[in-house]
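Appendix B, record 7
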Amino acid sequence: MARFDLPLIELERYLPQRQEPADFDAFWRSTLTEARQFSLEASFEAVDYGLTLLETFDVTFAGYAGQPIKGWLILPCVRTHPLPCVVEYIGYGGGRGFPSDHTLYGAAGYANLVMDTRGQGSGGRRGDTPDPDPSGLPQSPGFMTRGILDPRTYYYRRVLTDAVRAVDAARAHPAVDPTRVVVAGGSQGGGIALAVSALEPTVQATLPDVPFLCHFARATELTDALPYAEIAGYCRVHRDHVARVFETLSYFDGLNFAVRAVCRALFSVGLMDMICPPSTVYAAFNHYAGEKEMRVYPFNGHEGGAEYQTLERLRFLARLWNAPERTTDALTGRQA
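Structure tokens (predicted):
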């Protein structure tokens, strides 16, 4: 794998023009208002997956159109006060899996709500949430072109609404401090976290790793890799729909969310990432309106920093929440 995108010095100042629909804010305001007309009905059923130091709950809450969305809530068993919470979103194709897949934040002493992604969950980890709102129109295999001819029917309208409601669900549990909630995720999960940081401005921070769903116009021309290739494949067949496709996508582009987000942010990027090209990540980062940091992995692809970025996230959260921060050698694991 070799570098194929702009040099780092150009990435750091790459600030492309955004394509933003005039009714962007009105569209999302009405979407979330409609969703919140349904009772959240957040339920937390205690489940036993053998994690004796963690308390685990099977979560259900009302997402888009009041439809039930699944998730996990994972808490450290030992706690004396409401905890800060990481609301976590999942990468493309994956589902919530099992609580044993999500022990990091609980082990660090935080609450962790993991949202299942509707309709996904057959790639990697299993999912448990259906998507009952397909448009019925032709689409490429996958999720990127489901309902793509109208922002009102587009798949990610439902997903992003679910994601905002997941923050509401986390705050509904008495073990969670509602004033200390951050959103996080990698790839698709990173793109969702970036969107939620704009749509729910009360979140304290956002942690998008190698975020997907950013700068669609460049991504679909720069990489042949999936999932962006789903959009290009659709446009290759439906030649008369190209303008409508990108008009719809402008309501979901991470660049348009980035200029509206003001909470603290920790991004990461792999400079050899063929799936989410680095210029698409930097486009969102450079447009981001709030206080921000970027972690760069020059010789990595879509895996980004992997376990190294895990350490960066934990350090960031320790600073954010004034937890004791330990200096750890990444090779030996020794703490100072």
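Remarks on this record: The chain is about 30% helix and 20% strand. The two ends are 36 Å apart (CA to CA).
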